[in-house]
Write a structure and sequence with these properties.
This protein is of the alpha+beta class. 25% of the residues lie in helices and 24% in strands. Strands 1, 2, 13, 16, 17, 18, 19 and 20 form an eight-stranded mixed beta sheet that branches. Strands 42, 44, 48, 51, 53, 55, 57 and 58 form an eight-stranded mixed beta sheet that branches. A hairpin with a 4-residue loop joins strand 8 and strand 9. Helix 22 runs antiparallel to helix 25 and helix 28 runs antiparallel to helix 29.
Length: 1430
């Protein structure tokens, strides 16, 4: 196959690729030859898009030497950095947001001496494609470092295995490890390294133990590196930003050293060339030579906000090049207007994948007015529910009509079906809508099509008009990026120039005409006449047309009064009738138009009523009234049914007799192909008259429409309109391809247009490639009684002739009565269904797939936005309403935040901006949502939702202060609602209904629910609801449900409470029991008071002889009077432990038995050890030390008391029984006694674990540590004790409380990373005693750990951090890391910052610099200092 002949397009070899910029076809090149200075000079074009790269070739200067790009702005806020933190330098060094030391260039002028600091993660700025490339490059460097670490770990292990002086493996006796013989997996050895050496133990056994421990540690390093590699997720570089005022301009500098090799000295802050607002100096920066990503800086709000502008995609630069590129070395690649200047307005939000936002659009319009731009080019758009409506449309109308800006926008990419134009371009009166056109030359060069296409045509995917309210929709079409009317494609620019030149010679006002129409019997106004539905085209209808001349809004009244037009009206079609003449004064005029479609053939018809100036008809139509009439083919409407002589849905007559000569009764590829499709509506065996194009549809009483074989060429579009029968709820369309030599590509559309509904919500669309005789079935839901458009198109670039046979079969099973709302538990909902058209097989099935949790705001704040980028004309100030919501999740899963009142509205929305942000308890941003909320994986815990709404009407915002959000969780397994045939079956919970058939017209009643309570999600709390759908009909010949479903909602009410001992029937019957019950209630109230009391700071002076606190006295009282003996005493002691543990310093990994400081400094605590110099110790330090010792002793004493309450032998025997609850249930004691015993045992086990945990924490306290102010030790390890719970509750530890200590350690370890690489810490043998820990020996701590690990494995997240502290204290950093991973990466729990800091330090001790820096970067990502800006 030969390629297309490029010379046939009139292209020489030197201009072969000029068609990629198709200026020749619209006459732009010829025009520039005649008018060389009319190349756009003096014209400013605003590009509303993804952003324009300021460093792009061809976008540097205009043809007359001016800067090509005047300004680059990001209206979305996605690049905003909070720089409100003011810092002052110390010896030329400032401290960044995370404590990083940043050196200031001494040559930078800053008269105030104040610098503003902020941070931004690079991956939040760059588009996804660039992000992947940066990640790939960083991964290569990472893999090199990882490979070196793994090789060294294996080498160390191999060397140790071959160490001399030890017997060989074969000669040595086999020794058990702690994981095998001494308890749970991962428990420490409690044999060789935990007992005193005696004369009976040979010295070589101790060496063997040390050797074994060393080997385990080295093996742990190898395994740890593998495990870490699997969880690697590059957090990306962090950009350190600094803003200051140099006396003239605000300036910004960015430290990009995190993007380079550590220690390379590249990307330092002092080496950055400072930038100011782009419009002031037209300068830009580049993050690094490797990524080549250009950016600009803009500073707002007196330095509090730095906007780093980065493209969200390449499309904006592409559009700017088509519009105004100037390349002096290659004129063929010049844009249409190389002399024009550009304003880049980024409206695609990088946080949303480049989706436009209302805030970005509004700020872009403000920028247009600021620079007095002449034209706006926009290539974004969305489907809209209401055309020519919305806040953005209001602002766009103001910009166009009041400020004289020309606004052009793409029509959309949703074709080829009718009425698929999007907003704002195709549906807004003030904006010119541009369709997409491909010429033969473009096809050959820009798309590299193998063969020449016959003629220019619309792209198959380009959206089509009219709008749902009758306007034209598409005004112009553009080949590539050049503008030209349709369908003439030569010398259009010259003709337009000649027309404009002629109008300058005529003295006429600058008038536009607003035209609205409405049916005479309707109150709904439209911008045109669209008659689409079946009844609308059955008879003649009159429409009232209202025309108003409009001048510029600032025009004087005298000029407005002078408007007086004498026009003649002409109708382009004989079925239109309008007055011949019209006098149009300044206040407008109404007239009537008659549309008579009664005699029109089935199909599509278009006409216009055009108004001409009778004195200057050359001016063309002053206004047009577009009239579109669609006459659908009736389906299944025979005369008997039309006269009411047969039951609806019961077809009359012999279906087999419904055959038309030459037309197949079913799809059969052996039927001869015809050159036309006969459009026939069969009612009595005779066809209707053919439509005007000679093609037809066969429509029979069996509610099936058949299209005979249709012939296609590339770009051929065939559309047919069908009157969907009442009662139809879905259709099945079958396509059969002809005998193609190669596969053909087809676009298929099935579209219905409904009021205030997006076309995308009612349209079924697919793209398929069909080979010879291939078959494709497409099913889609329907709205009964609304016209259905079937559009078939062979894709414009799919070469060769194709053919299709099509059959559309209508089906219907609908709910005709009932709400589908199940009110709550033990309730059902009755629905009545009906099969309207034919016999249908049904299987009623209800699935609830989403849990909906409404959340009301806990705080609201409204502030005016005083930055110039948020100020509308005439000084109108935009206000921002920020609502805060608190969310606590009990179940992990996929969640999304929705605002049902606002979602899915952008151009037709009421607000200038809407955005929600979801944060975890650490303020980390998890998800940003706008009009299309998306799901995010969330763990259990607490979250904060922030919603911001923007508008210049503060009163409107005030009404939204209480608007709720709805958090939706996608259920992992849907809740199946049983469906019953009778209410009796529902009451008895009989077997649900199964498959059955409904004949045409038959009705049936079903009962939905009740839903078994044990099937409901655990987090289905009162006020929430479950959403799903009822599916009924089955696809033909299948067990699969048909598309379309009836919505079902389940209201979650109060769950039934399980009976308790207090609820027994004999309660209160015996008066002798009243007094003990009262005493018990008082005791419970006192305990509850203790449990709810929060510690107020640390106990001071609680040494020997100190007076007991009130809490201690109350605890002693409760211990003496415990109603249920040891069980209640355990509850009191657990409460005491929680209080006492708050007096201990915060646990630091490595403090138990370690000879190193938390930062790994061999010299110990850099602040000094008071005990190391007793003579110099102050009295205050000694007092604090005594208090700390007393606090440790109190914890140990309380823990021992709790441990003594537990019969560990009996508890172990009970735990060892498999399914003890089941065994007890069949015992003589009965089920109630078994349940009670189970709860008692589980409570005692939990109390024992908490007591041992607290004891270990106390014994691990270093004497040099200061008490912590935060009572989170026990909380993080075991969770709070709940009186009525059989298992501990996990809680999310706070973050703000731990920032001071963790941040300091984070900074110290970060500074250490900048020095020389540290060698791995030497592995200890465990034979040397550690420093004294407040009188506790190492054996005490090890013994407590040994006891704890009997009851809970070391890998349990509750004790993992404590066990990691133990391992680190034994100088086994790799083992500590593996243990700590269980706490850091535990499912359903956010990591604690201190644990991540500790792990980073352990990585540094191991000498793994790349993992150390990785963890530090991850900490900064997971624990931001503040909420991000909207």
């Amino acid at each position: 196959m030969h390629g297309a002949d490029t010379h046939s397009h009139g292209l020489g070899a030197d201009m072969l690729f000029a068609a990629a910029m198709p200026k020749e076809e619209i006459g732009a090149l010829a025009f520039l030859k005649q008018q060389p200075d009319s190349d756009g000079r003096g014209v400013i074009v605003a590009i509303f898009d993804t952003g324009v790269d300021p460093g792009s070739k061809g976008l540097q200067v205009t043809t007359d030497g001016k800067p090509k790009i005047l300004d680059v702005v990001d209206g979305t806020g996605s690049g905003d950095v909070d720089t409100s933190t003011v810092v002052e330098p110390n010896d030329g060094v400032i401290t960044g947001v995370y404590g990083d030391k940043l050196t200031i260039n001494p040559e930078w002028s800053n008269p105030t001496g104040k610098w503003r600091a902020g941070v931004k993660h690079l991956y939040e700025l760059v588009p996804s494609g660039l992000k992947k490339r940066i990640q790939r490059d960083r991964r290569k460097l990472w893999d090199e470092q990882q490979s070196l670490s793994i090789a060294k770990a294996w080498s160390d292990l191999s060397k140790h295995s071959k160490a001399p002086g030890l017997p060989s493996k074969a000669a040595r006796p086999q020794e058990s490890t702690s994981a095998e013989d001494d308890g749970p997996e991962g428990a420490p050895s409690m044999t060789n390294d935990s007992t005193e050496e005696t004369d009976a133990v040979p010295n070589d056994n101790k060496l063997k133990g040390a050797h074994r421990l060393m080997k385990e540690e080295l093996q742990a390093r190898v395994e740890l590196l593998k495990e870490l590699q699997e969880g690697y997720d590059d957090p990306g570089p962090l950009l350190q930003c600094v803003v200051w005022h140099d006396g003239t301009h605000w300036r910004a500098a960015i430290d990009t050293s995190d993007m380079h090799e550590p220690g390379s000295g590249k990307g330092l802050l002092a080496d950055f060339q400072p930038l100011t607002n782009y419009k002031a100096e037209h300068q830009h920066g580049t993050f690094s030579p490797q990524d080549g990503c250009n950016f600009v800086c803009n500073i707002y709000e007196d330095g509090d906000v730095l906007s780093i502008v980065v493209d969200s995609g390449s499309h904006g630069t592409h559009v700017a090049g088509i519009t105004a590129a100037h390349q002096s070395d290659n004129l063929a690649l010049n844009g249409v207007a190389p002399g024009a200047q550009i304003i880049s307005c980024k409206i695609g939000d990088s946080r949303l994948g480049g989706m436009e936002t209302g805030t970005g659009l509004t700020r872009a319009l403000i920028t247009v007015l600021e620079h007095k731009a002449d034209l706006i080019n926009m290539s974004f758009g969305e489907a809209t529910s209401t055309p020519n409506y919305g806040r953005f449309i209001e602002l766009a109308n103001e910009v166009v009509h009041k400020h004289g800006v020309i606004f052009v926008s793409s029509a959309g990419n949703a074709g080829p079906a009718l009425s698929t134009v999007g907003a704002p371009g195709g549906t807004s009166s003030a904006i010119l809508s541009i369709g997409a056109y491909v010429s033969p030359a473009m096809a050959a060069v820009a798309h590299s099509v193998r063969q020449e296409i016959a003629q220019g045509q619309q792209y198959t995917w380009s959206s089509r008009g009219p709008t749902p309210d009758g306007a034209t929709g598409v005004v112009l079409s553009a080949p590539g990026g050049a503008i030209a009317p349709v369908p003439q494609w030569t010398e259009q620019v010259q003709k337009a120039f000649e027309y404009v030149s002629k109008t300058e010679e005529v003295d006429m006002p600058d008038v536009r005409y607003e035209v609205t129409t409405r049916r005479s019997d309707s109150a709904i106004s439209q911008r045109g006449i669209l008659m689409r539905e079946p009844l609308e085209s059955e008879k003649a209808v009159t429409h009232v047309c209202d025309v108003h001349p409009k001048l510029h809004e600032d025009a004087e009244m005298a000029a407005k009064l002078q408007v007086y037009d004498e026009v003649v009206l002409e109708c382009s079609q004989p079925w239109l009738d309008a007055p011949g003449a019209l006098i149009l004064p300044h206040n407008g005029r109404m007239f009537e138009v008659k549309v008579d479609p009664s005699e029109l053939a089935e199909g599509l018809h278009y006409g216009e009523v055009q108004a001409f100036d009778h004195k200057a008809k050359w001016r063309g139509p002053l206004f047009r009234i577009p009239v579109t009439v669609i006459k659908p083919s009736p389906v299944g409407k025979d005369p008997a049914r039309a006269a009411g002589q047969s039951e609806a849905g019961a077809p009359a007559g012999d279906l087999d007799a419904l055959r038309v000569p030459g037309m197949p009764g079913s799809i059969d590829e052996n039927q001869p192909a015809t050159s036309a499709m006969d459009v026939v509506s069969v009612t009595d065996g005779k066809p209707y008259d053919r439509s005007d194009d000679g093609q037809s549809v066969q429509v029979g009483q069996n509610y099936t429409a058949r299209l005979d074989r249709v012939q296609f060429q590339p770009g051929t579009e065939v559309r047919r309109f069908l009157d969907v029968p009442e009662g139809a709820t879905w259709a099945e369309m079958t396509l059969k391809a002809g005998n193609h030599d190669t596969p053909r590509n087809f676009m298929l559309r099935a579209t219905q247009i409904l009021p205030h509904t997006r076309y995308s919500d009612t349209e079924a669309r697919t793209y398929c490639s069909l080979g010879a005789h291939a078959r494709h079935v497409m099913s889609f839901k329907l709205t009964p009684g609304a016209t259905l458009e079937i559009t078939l198109s062979q894709f414009w670039s799919s070469l060769g002739q194709g053919s299709l046979q099509v059959e559309v079969a209508f089906h219907g099973v609908a709910v005709v009565q009932g709400t589908g709302v199940i009110p709550g538990p033990s309730r059902s909902s009755k629905v009545q269904i009906r099969a309207a058209l034919r016999t249908e097989k049904i299987i009623p099935s209800v699935k609830l797939q989403t849990l909906q949790i409404p959340v009301r705001p806990t705080d609201s704040q409204m502030l005016p936005l005083c930055s110039p980028r948020d100020q509308l004309p005439q000084g109108r100030i935009i206000h921002a309403l920020t609502l805060t919501y608190k969310l606590s999740l009990e179940t992990e899963g996929k969640h999304r935040v929705t605002v049902p009142m606002l979602n899915r509205y952008v151009y037709d929305g009421e607000f200038e901006g809407q955005m929600s942000m979801l944060h975890d308890a650490n303020k980390r941003l998890i998800k940003v949502s706008d009009i299309y909320p998306e799901f995010a994986d969330l763990k259990r815990g607490d979250y904060t939702i922030r919603l911001q709404l923007r508008h210049d009407d503060a009163a409107l915002l005030d009404k939204m202060k209480d608007v709720p959000v709805v958090v939706e969780r996608k259920l992992k397994e849907p809740v199946m609602v049983p469906v019953y045939a009778t209410v009796r079956d529902a009451l008895k919970a009989a077997k649900p209904v199964k498959e059955r058939s409904l004949y045409a017209g038959e009705r049936a009643v079903y009962f939905l629910g009740p839903v078994p309570l044990d099937k409901l999600p655990k987090d289905a709390s009162p006020g929430s609801s479950l959403a799903g759908s009822l599916k009924l009909g089955l696809l033909q010949g299948s067990k699969e449900h048909a598309p379309g479903a009836f919505p079902v909602f389940y209201s979650c009410g109060l769950k039934s409470k399980a009976p308790s001992d207090k609820d027994g029937g004999q309660e209160g019957d015996n008066k002798d029991e009243e007094e003990p019950q009262l005493e018990h209630a008082v005791w419970e109230a006192k305990l509850k008071f203790l449990q709810s009391s929060k510690p107020k700071g640390k106990t001071q002076g609680a040494g020997p002889g100190a007076k007991p606190s009130a809490a201690t006295e109350l605890e002693e009282e409760l211990l003496q009077s415990a109603p249920k003996g040891d069980q209640d005493k355990m509850r009191v002691l657990r409460t005491r432990l929680k209080r006492l543990i708050s007096n201990l310093p915060e646990r630091t990994i490595g403090s138990a038995g370690s000879q190193q400081s938390p930062q790994g400094d061999p010299q110990g605590d850099p602040q000094g050890d008071p005990q190391g110099d007793p003579q110099g110790a102050s009295e205050e330090s000694q007092s604090q030390q005594m208090n700390l010792m007393a606090a440790v002793q109190d914890v140990v004493a309380a823990a021992d008391a709790a441990i003594a309450l537990v019969d560990q032998v009996a508890l172990a025997q009970y735990v060892a029984i498999k399914s003890p609850d089941q065994l007890e249930r069949v015992s003589l004691e009965g089920a109630d006694a078994a349940a009670k015993k189970k709860k008692e045992m589980e409570d005692m086990k939990q109390g024992l674990i908490e007591a041992l945990t607290c004891k270990c924490l106390a014994l691990s306290v270093d004497k040099s540590e200061e008490p912590s102010d935060e009572p989170e030790q026990l909380e993080a390890a075991t969770g709070p004790e709940a009186p009525d719970s059989s298992s501990p509750q996990q809680t999310e530890a706070g973050v703000e409380e731990e920032r001071s200590g963790s941040d300091a350690q984070l900074q110290d370890t970060a500074e250490a990373a900048n020095g020389a690489d540290r060698q791995p810490a030497a592995t200890g043998t465990g034979q040397d005693d550690p420093p004294d820990h407040l009188g506790a020996s190492q054996d005490d701590f090890r013994g407590a750990m040994h006891e704890l690990l009997k009851w809970v494995p070391a890998k349990d997240p509750k004790v993992a951090a404590l066990y990691a502290s133990y391992e680190a204290g034994q100088e086994r950093p790799a083992s500590a890391c593996r243990a700590l991973a269980k706490a850091v990466d535990s499912d359903g729990k956010a990591p604690l910052k201190k644990d991540l800091v500790a792990r980073a330090e352990l990585f540094r001790q191991l000498g793994w610099k790349h993992w150390h820096l990785y963890e530090l970067s991850r900490i900064k990502l997971l624990f931001p200092k503040s909420y991000p800006l909207f």
